[in-house]
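Researcher: Next sequence.
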Amino acid sequence: MSLLLLIIIAHLLADFLFQSGEVALEKERRNLLAYLKHYLVHLACLVLLTHFFYSPGLLIIWFLLPLLHVAVDYLKCLVISRRNSWQELFAFLIDQSLHLLLVFMAWQLVTSNTHPAVLYAYDVFVTSRGQDLLELIFTSAELKEILFYVVIYGYVVLAGSALIRKVLDLEAFKLPEQFADTDTRQAGRYIGIMERLIILTLAVIQAYTAIGLVLAVKSIARFKELEEREFAEYYVMGTLLSMFLAVLGGLAINHGF
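Model: Next structure:
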């Protein structure tokens, strides 16, 4: 299970944290160099996070899984038109579902045991007790719980930003022109990230009543802009979706472990 969670975390890092807007835009233009960059980032994340479990099968997965990932991305760009926001939303959901399916299938093909040679290398180069320490870390139930937390936080905070952006780009929730400048959108994105991070943490510790305080603070900051009906609808939709994802993530953590 630890290996599966690490592969998912590698996907989250490569697809959401380390993929720049410029690379994403160039991929939509079918620039092969952008796909190569995306492939190499995925490969690097996979190797760094999963090399503890090295095996010949995993070596194949390191090169094959990122290749399949960029192939799915390329097919998505062939099929989807950016002029249709509904298509973009559904394509995003299908795209991420396919990536997770590929991750799960890849995990089924490899062993989930730490490799003695890797542990020995850490024992030699890191510390004299490195082997015992890594054996303890990578076979403990606590590690699985920590990795599960990281996966849920990653999807709520990072993937949640992409999903909410796709929803708010729908014609029904389009931001009015006077609020549609880049600074406003960027500020809203970072506020949303902090909002989900705080609400998810409150949900994990089951302090649900404190969530109202977070929403109140956010509303005060946007009080003047909420006088515009179009902006208010946009704001409410983004806030409700952000809160829903965070609370859902909290429930997943509380009932997952």
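Model: The radius of gyration is 21 Å. The chain is about 80% helix and 0% strand.
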